[in-house]
Amino acid sequence: MRHIWAWPCLAVFTPTSSSPSLRTLAACSLAFPARNLAKSLPSRRVAPFALSAAPFRAATTLTAATQPQPQPRPRSVALAAAAALPYQEMETVNTSARLAALRSLMKERNIDIYVVPSEDSHASEYIAACDGRREYISGFSGSSGTAVVTHDKAALATDGRYFNQAAKQLDQNWLLLKTGLQDVPTWQEWVATEAAAGKVVGVDPTLISSSIAGKLDESIKKNGGARLEAVTGNLVDLVWGSARPPRPNQEVFFLSANYSGNDTETKLVDLRKELVKKKAAGFVVSLLDDIAWLFNLRGSDIPYNPVFFSYAIVTKDSATLYIDSTKLTTASQEYLNSIKVSVKPYDELFADTKALVADAEATAESGSIKKYLIASKASWALKLALGGGKFVEEIRSPISDAKAVKNEVELNGMINCHIRDGAALTQFFAWLEDQLINKKAVIDEVAAADKLEEFRSKHKDFVGLSFDTISSTGPNGAVIHYKPERGNCSVIDPTAVYLCDSGAQYYDGTTDVTRTLHFGTPKPEEKHAYTLVLKGNIALDKAVFPKGTNGFAIDVLARQFLWKSGLDYRHGTGHGVGSFLNVHEGPIGIGTRKAYVDVSLAPGNVLSIEPGYYEDGAYGIRIENLAIVREVQTEHKFGDKPYLGFQHITMVPYCRNLIDVTLLTEEEKEWLNKSHQEIFANIEHYFKDDPLAHAWLVRETQPF
């Protein structure tokens, strides 16, 4: 999933065509509503998006006898020329001049070590182009990582999802710190070691949380360093200069209760109850998706994420939204006025914190301390502006907690949009196989991703993609968060494994699905790995666990079959997903991160289940479904606790061609057959006029 985008177009070459057929697509950047999209692409007619809720289509029970009979899988091999084309390597950027300029500024400011985080001022995982400082200075484009620059060294730390990508993108100036591997220091440990002998470490305080800054400062001093210094004015921005992209200023629109399920007034009442519990004067909100959810507004300042640059302050009797008011549509402005939410300029937030501090100081003189709450992810700069620890309490955002538990309107929307999304993916996979095998077409990874977006765009309530499509053939699939670049990507090899991780934003929900396919004859080891991953997916999907269980505790269920073969994967098993919001949504998740220990799964959570396996230089396998946490009925209720389980909502068949049926138990085959019946029942009616997709669906959902 990426934060850099370009206007995509599709070029498909067939043996009978002398020139490519081109189709311009309105991709990414989530330029909503439709009229904005039309302005940016005047040559394309854009129909307005219909703001109406889609009815839920209930699954029906389908027996093998009622399904149409399967058609044999085509086994012809595509053009040898296509298979012979080289896999494209990711490009590196020469960072020597940039590093030299940064080091010059560090010397002027008496900074020995400078830290460049990935995040923006709102702790966003995915960021606008103007905030891509770490990518600019290092050349590494992954969504997660921290760059550290000294006067003679430079290091980039990232996690296992990006080891391959970083190794290919970093030039000779950089040391790669593979976070999580044995004997490899974290970036904080590396900084502390380098800071020995009284060195000063600098960082832009708007880009690092107060808790991380405090721990880093302590570690620096413990190792003989001087201190961590909050550097005013971002040094990378100064190096970037006029080439730095401008801050986005996209339109912000109102999302009605038909999609959100709850109005802002109800959400504010609930938030103020938390203020009373904490005996707090107010909550200063800095996380962008928290603000979008709280006020039922959506924007497109960050590609693929329907959020907008803003802050908010909520007290017991007021709510203020800090945003450039010119971005608000008339309906948005009228809605905010109707619920008595004040609107002030985005840049005035830090000035207004001075008044909050003055009020808190005055209250303190009378003997009581008035504290303001901020999220634990909030920036060091925000805490400093609020007077530091005396008047600030850092907590896990109560808005994030509430947002993670979807209401019934949101859950029905997620179910409905996944049905439409599944139909689009089924149509795409059928088309792709036909092009590669029957028509012998030469299609590259980007062209395939563009075609998938075209299929999705035809469905109701489609807004845009939820992240950059990971369309990867052969060894590119082993790069966990691979991004094919237009003009520098591989041709899809029909004799190799193809991994497609993609998602979309619909007004009624957000999708994220991964399917791994093989259009020819897979190798035994590929089928073995795929089936172990599938077994892990099934095991977690079928899990039943008591209320209070966290994602850390159940992660092993998805890995167990890989572990028995001495295999594993270097990423989490699942992440929370927003409702027409960020495709990665905290605080819930399934994996080994410490943060997942602190948050129990709850009914109404929506998260991914996505085990995988990656053979460097050969192939990648991942199977990802989204699932709703539901209360389930059990024979007993030990400890008088309710028990929970998962309801998967992704409606895309699994690749029969890659399944080694001999490795499946009868119970697993039963689960697979039932899932395929459900998928067929929900999406088959979309293909009445598409015999190709219908035949593919029939074949792929036949019972084992």
TrEMBL record:
Q: What class of enzyme is it?
A: hydrolase
Q: Source organism's superkingdom?
A: Eukaryota
Q: Name one GO biological process term.
A: proteolysis
The residue ranges of the Peptidase M24 domain are: 414-631
Keyword Manganese listed? The answer is yes
What is the similarity comment for this entry?
Belongs to the peptidase M24B family.
PANTHER family in the record? XAA-PRO AMINOPEPTIDASE 1 (PTHR43763)
Q: Know the name of this protein?
A: Probable Xaa-Pro aminopeptidase P
Species the sequence originates in: Podospora didyma
